[in-house]
Prior knowledge:
The protein is an alpha/beta fold and 727 residues long. The chain contains 18 helices and twelve strands. It has helices at residues 34-46, 63-66, 122-127, 131-135, 151-161, 171-186, 191-272, 279-305, 324-342, 351-372, 381-423, 431-478, 487-525, 534-537, 541-572, 575-632, 664-682, 700-713, and strands at residues 2-10, 13-18, 23-27, 76-83, 86-93, 102-107, 139-141, 640-642, 648-652, 655-658, 689-692, 719-723. A hairpin with an 8-residue loop joins strand 5 (86-93) and strand 6. The chain is flat.
Amino acid sequence: xxxxxxRASFGKLQGELALQDGxxxxxxxxxxxxxxxxxxxxxxxxxxxxxxxxxxxxxxLPAKERYRPWSGKPMEGSMDLEWKGRxxxxxxKSTPKAPMSLFRAxxxxxxxxxxxLSGENCGRTLCGVxxxxxxxxAFIRQLGMSVNADDALEKRLGALVSTGEExxxxxxxxxxxxxxxxxxxxxxxxxxxKLQTELTEAEQLHTNLENLQKDIQTAEADxxxxxxxxxxxxxxxxRIDNAKQAKGxxxxxxxxxxxxxxxxxxxxxxxxxxxxxxxxxxxxxxxRLDQAVSSLETAKMEAAFAPAPTPRPQAPSYFxxxxxxxxxxxxxxxxxxxxxxxxxxxxxxxLPLILCLLLFLGAGALAVLTYLERLPFTFxxxxxxxxxxxxxxxxxxxxxxYQRRTVKHVRSLLQAQQILQQYRAxxxxxxxxxxxxYSNAQKxxxxxxxxxxxxxxxxxxxxxxxxxxxxxxxxxxAAFTPDCKTLLQARQGLAEALxxxxxxxxxxxxxxNQRSQHRSMKEIFGEGTRKFDFEAMNLDESKLRYEHRxxxxxxxxxxxxxxxxxxxxxxxxxxxxxxxxxxxxRQQLLADQxxxxxxxxxxxxxxxxxxxxxxxxxxxxxxxxxxxxxxxxRGKYPAVQLSPEMQLSVRDGAxxxxxxxxxxxxxxxxxxxxxxxxxxxxxxEDAPLILDDALVNFDDDRCDxxxxxxxxxxxxxxxxxxxxxxx
Length: 727
C-alpha cells in the first residue's frame, strides 16, 4: 500500500499533500503541521476513538477535540492510495456527534465502491495489522519511540515462533480468561463465597423458624389493636365531612348567583368580538406580521450594507464605451482602412511637366524668333503662339494634377499615421494585441464580478417583496380595523384585537370553571339542606387527618410485617427441606473448590509457557534490531537485548546498560532499530513507515546513518519522514 495524495480538514491542516513511492523527506519548520499530518494518516486508516476522554495520557485533550479544524469547517479528509496494483480513494467525514465516522472507499478512476473496505477494517486490511500493532511498530514519533506491551503485538510476536497463525489467543488473553473464571469462583461476588453464605444461612434457618412463629403471634395482636384505632379516627372524620356537606349547600347557592353574572359578561364580550378573527388566527397574523417586518428590516440592512459593485476596468480611450465585439469591429475596420491608405502610391516623377515646359519654351522661342523675323524659314506666328498657349495650358493642367496626387498621397500617409497614433502603436501588427488585452480584461471582469450585479438586483427584489408582504398584512389587519393605515396602527389594532379575544377567552375559562365547580358541588352536596354539627366543626380536622394517616401507615406497616413474616415462614419450609438444601450446598461448594485448584494449576502452567515463548521470539527480534543499531551507530553498538517487558539494553564494554541510562539520542536509535526490526518481521512489505521528527535527537553523523537505513528500507516499503532538520 502506498499513499499518493492526502486532502485534509484536520486541526490546523486545510489543504493537500502529495507523496511518492519510496523515500519521502518532508522538511517543515515547527508549527507547520508535521505531527498533525501523521495523526491525520492514523485517523484516515483507523478512525478516531470517539469514546476517548480527557486523561493525563492525552494531556486532557482527546483527539476529537485536539484535531478539531481551526477553520471551523467539519473534520474530514481523503487519501489517494495504490493498493494491490490499483488506484483507490478513501474518504472520512464527520457527523455532529462522531468525527470521521462516515467512511467511503472507491476506485479512483471508475468511482465504483469497494465493499471489502469499511471504516472498521480499513487500517487492518490496508496495513495488515491492528491499530495498536501499527502504532507500536511503523508509526514512530519523537516522544513515542519506546515500545510497550500490547495484546495484539504479543499475539503477532507469538505467531513468529509458533504456527504463524494470528487467530490463536495471546498469553495475556488466556491469562485474562483464566483469571476471569477464577474470579467468578472465588472473587468477592464469586460462587464460592455465595455458597458459603447460603450454607451459613441454611444452618441458621431452623433456629429462625422457631423465633419467627413467636413474632407472628405478637404482630397479629398489634394489628388488631391498630385496626380499632383507625376505625375510631375514621368515624370522627366522617362527622366532619357531614358538617362540611351542610356548609357546602350555602356555598352552592352563592356560586349559582356568580355563575349567572359571569354568563352575562361573556355574552357581552362575544358581541363585541364577533367580527374579529379567532385568537389563534390573530396570533398567526401577528407572527406573520412580525416575521414580515423582520424580513423587511433584514432586507433593508442587507441592501444598506451590501458592498458597492466593483467598477468595470477603465477602457483605453480608443475603446471607450465599446463592447468587445464593437472594439473588434473597430480594430478590423481601422486595419482595413490602414491597409487601403498604405496602398496609396506616390505620384510619378514630373517628366510630363518637363516635356510640356520644354514644348512651351520651344513654341515661345519659335514665336519670338518668328516675330523678329530671324528664322531661316517662314513660320506662321499664330500657329507658334497657339502651340505655346496649348503647351502652357497642358503644363498648368499636369501641374495641378500632380499637386493633387501628391497631396492625396501625403494625406493618406498622415491618416494612416493618425490611426496608429490613435492606438499609440508603432506598427499596425500591434492592434490585435491591444484588442486581445482589452478582451481579456473585460472577460476577467465578467468572470469575477458578474455575480455582483445579480446580487444587487436580488437584494433590491427581496426588499421590494418584503415591503409588499408588510403592506399585504396591513391590509389584512385593516379588514377588521378600518382606521389601520400604517404599520404602527396595524400593530396597535392587532394588540387591541388580541386583548379583546384574550379577555373573552379568560372570561369563558372562568365561566367554564364556575360551571364545572357548580356541577361538582351540586354532585357533592346534592339538593336540599342539612343540619350543622357544631361539635364536629370545632374539631381539629388537620390534626385528626394527620393522626388517621399515621394510624393507617402504622397499620399498613404491621400488615406488611405480618405478611412478610408469614411469607418467610412459607419460604423457609420444613426442617427436612432445610437439611436437604444444606447437603446440596456442601456438595456444590466442594466441586467449585476443586475447580478453583485446577484453575490455579492452569495459570501456573500458562506463565511457564509464556516465559518459554518469549525466550524464543526475543532472539529473532534482537538479532535484527542489533544489525540495524550497528548501522545507526556506525558499528559502536552491534547488538541489543530485549526484556520480556519490551525494554532494551546494550553492552558497553563489560557492562550491560539499559536504554534509560543512555543519552536521549542513543536511546532513540535503540528503539528505532527495534521498531524497524519489528516492522520487517511483523508487517507486510507494502505497509508504510511513518516518522514524525524521530531523528531530532540524532547528531549529524548518526542522522546521516539513519537516513541511509531508511533509504534502504524505502526500497521495500514507502517511508514518510517528517522533520524540521535539513537532511
